[in-house]
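Figure 3 (text version): structure tokens given as input.
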């Protein structure tokens, strides 16, 4: 844990240094990408004519969009890559068992395809290709200027920080207790928990931001629902429903959802406007979408209820009658009595010494003569043999039989069930975590404030480690990498998105926003809509309604989606199908879309 914290500490310092050092672009910075006004194609009527003109004027536009298309296609192939990686890895493990490969070796091809199969790595991989193409078309200063001054990495950094904070034990405990009260009002069954998480969780996104709500809802679903091993169809249905509900759940306020943030200031939309024009409709649509999947899967929910009840009973027994500390004390006493009676530890230690002496003698016969020929003292060589032999044995014993080693030689124990222990979290620790989250949310647009806040939190988490879960930074870092790559690509897609949005009427505009959102971040869609002149109020409503309704169709449609996927993908054998997500989200997307249209 300490090494991970140190790594993230250094990484965060580096990132914050870049943010602070970047500042504004210098006066002689390259003009790239060209502003949309610079094309001078306002007199061209058709979308095709505008796009053709912009490609002729800047051929790089087409290349950048083709690379973006390759990245999207790659996301649909990640499952195939992961299957290949697993097959090659399994074949290599068989070779290890047969002695045809070294015991600790890995299959490099399997590792490479596993990397290509990580959904969160896709846009980062293709962003590297994009930067290379920028250098080929223009030069390195142009590429550097674009990354430093034209791409805004605030959102990826914020998501990394808020995911890290929202996944902590105190935050999850207080949220789980809140959900527990609501679920108990609904009967306390698995169905009640399913409804509560998929309704209240997304609504929290309007107050604690969508990425935080996604993290909390996904982790609660992992514990209460996915751990029960539902059918694959139900897994995907719930994942699609979660993505859609989180996308629309942040529309009750004007500051929590990225697509709303992009338009709130330019169009003067405050929280009251969002609540009266979008919020209540979003809640109504979520309830209807949840009801539709409840009716489809109600029989499976009943089947899973038995396993859910057993898990709840086990948790209650652990919390009230079978405390972890009490059981461990009893087992320690039992082990001590056995050792006192049979002298297990001392007997094993003596046998290990005998084995060590035998190995040393064998090695001496082979090597001492050779070392003596090099002028090395035999006593010194024999001592070196003995010490190295002990070190190798200790490493092996730490892996195979650590319990038989003396306490001072045992490796640190990483409890795999540490995150599921029963001891409570002190109130002051919970309040401190809430304060850290509040600081991050208030300063969501200012990395020089929320990144140092995270560094402060990491120190606090280290001091209060007995009350914390294991700090797993991998999901947050992967999601940040994903979003960082996405914003690099998204900054070069305005040349075709802006004319498409600007040449549609209200209902086609709403349809177009939903479709475009599936292939680009919905925040990018709403941002580009603010650049289109003469948008009527009805068209503004249509673009935002379409963008948030379509935010669950794909992994890239809404910024929090990769966060939820990163937490839940282990329940899909690490092979989450983008096609199945699209199909699972289609019904709730249609319900929310019609809700925004009709009301």
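Below: residues designed for each position.
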């Amino acid at each position: 844990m300490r090494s991970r914290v140190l790594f993230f500490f250094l990484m965060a310092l580096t990132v914050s240094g870049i943010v602070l050092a970047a500042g504004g672009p210098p006066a002689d910075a390259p003009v790239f990408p060209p502003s949309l006004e610079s094309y001078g194609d306002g007199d061209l009527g058709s979308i095709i004519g505008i796009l053709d003109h912009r490609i002729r004027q800047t051929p790089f536009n087409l290349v950048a969009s083709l690379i973006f298309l390759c990245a999207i296609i790659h996301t649909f192939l990640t499952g195939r890559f992961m299957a290949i990686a697993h097959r090659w890895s399994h074949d290599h493990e068989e070779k290890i068992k047969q002695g045809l490969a070294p015991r600790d070796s890995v299959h490099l091809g399997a590792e490479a395809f596993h990397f290509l199969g990580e959904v969160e790595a896709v846009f980062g991989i293709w962003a590297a290709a994009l930067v290379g193409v920028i250098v080929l078309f223009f030069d390195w200063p142009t590429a550097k200027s674009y990354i430093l001054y034209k791409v805004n990495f605030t959102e990826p950094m914020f998501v990394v920080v808020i995911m890290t904070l929202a996944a902590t034990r105190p935050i999850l405990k207080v949220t789980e207790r809140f959900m527990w009260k609501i679920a108990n009002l609904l009967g306390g069954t698995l169905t009640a928990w399913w409804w509560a998480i998929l309704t209240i969780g997304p609504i929290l996104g309007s107050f604690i931001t969508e990425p935080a709500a996604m993290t909390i809802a996904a982790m609660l679903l992992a514990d209460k629902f996915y751990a029960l091993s539902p059918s694959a169809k139900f897994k995907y249905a719930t994942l699609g429903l979660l993505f859609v509900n989180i996308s629309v759940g942040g529309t009750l306020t004007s500051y929590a959802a990225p697509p709303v943030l992009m338009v709130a200031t330019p169009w003067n939309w405050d929280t009251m406007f969002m609540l009266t024009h979008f919020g209540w409709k979003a809640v109504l649509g979520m309830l209807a979408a949840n009801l539709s999947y409840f009716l489809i899967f109600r029989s499976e929910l009943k089947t899973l209820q038995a396993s859910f009840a057993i898990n709840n009973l086990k948790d209650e027994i652990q919390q009230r009658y079978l405390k972890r500390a009490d059981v461990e004390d009893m087992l320690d006493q039992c082990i001590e009595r056995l050792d006192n009676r049979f002298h297990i530890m001392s007997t094993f230690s003596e046998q290990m010494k005998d084995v060590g002496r035998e190995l040393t003698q064998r090695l001496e016969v082979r090597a001492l003569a050779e070392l003596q020929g090099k002028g090395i003292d035999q006593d010194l060589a024999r001592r070196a043999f003995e010490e190295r032999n002990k070190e190798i044995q200790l490493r092996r014993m730490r892996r195979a039989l650590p319990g038989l080693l003396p306490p001072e030689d045992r490796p640190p124990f990483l409890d795999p069930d540490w995150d599921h222990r029963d001891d409570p979290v002190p109130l002051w620790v919970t309040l401190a975590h809430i304060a850290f989250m509040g600081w991050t949310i208030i300063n969501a647009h200012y990395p020089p404030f929320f990144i140092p806040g995270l560094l402060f939190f990491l120190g606090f988490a280290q001091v209060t480690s007995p009350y914390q879960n294991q700090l797993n930074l991998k999901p947050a870092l992967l999601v940040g990498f994903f979003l960082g790559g996405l914003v690099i690509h998204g900054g070069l897609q305005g040349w075709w998105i802006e004319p498409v949005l600007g040449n549609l009427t209200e209902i086609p505009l709403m349809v177009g926003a939903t479709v475009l959102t599936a292939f680009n971040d919905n925040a990018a869609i709403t941002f580009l809509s603010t650049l289109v002149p003469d948008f009527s109020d009805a068209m503004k409503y249509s673009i935002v309604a379409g963008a948030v309704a379509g935010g669950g169709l794909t992994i890239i449609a809404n910024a929090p989606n990769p966060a939820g996927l990163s937490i839940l993908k282990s329940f899909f054998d690490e092979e989450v199908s983008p096609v199945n997500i699209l199909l699972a989200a289609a019904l709730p997307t249609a319900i929310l879309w019609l809700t925004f249209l009709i009301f």
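The mean pLDDT is 83.
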